[in-house]
Amino acid sequence: xxxxxxxxxxxxxxxxxxxxxxxxxxxxxxxxxxxxxxxxxxxxxxxxxxxxxxxxxxxxxxxxxxxxxxxxxxxxxxxxxxxxxxxxxxxxxxxxxxxxxxxxxxxxxxxxxxxxxxxxxxxxxxxxxxxxxxxxxxxx
Length: 140
Hints:
Elements: H1 15-18, H2 51-55, H3 59-62, H4 72-75, E1 77-81, E2 87-92, H5 103-114, E3 118-123, E4 126-130, E5 136-138
Parallel strand pairs: 2-3
Antiparallel strand pairs: 1-2, 3-4, 4-5
């Protein structure tokens, strides 16, 4: 997926904090030690970054129709598609586990569920299923 013109990481480095990077022994919710400046982007090992980082494609950057207001650092949630299933995820910082409940993000997640997607919000080890009727509850 290529980034859409006008959509760049800019100051966002949210993926460098929220996502797990096993190759660097970095757990989810912990800022990567190679992130140059949290909140201003940049990777200190960009040319030699792990394959998982090379393969990561920010859905916000590649979706022409996704609002600039849904940029991960602005919402507290990374929106992701699981390549191996029909699951659509909102991955939140464990320090703000309910960021997915902000009206803008929640409306987007409900719309995805209405379109037939399996929608799950995650924060650390906790996860919640969101349905097309707006109901949600913990995954068990």
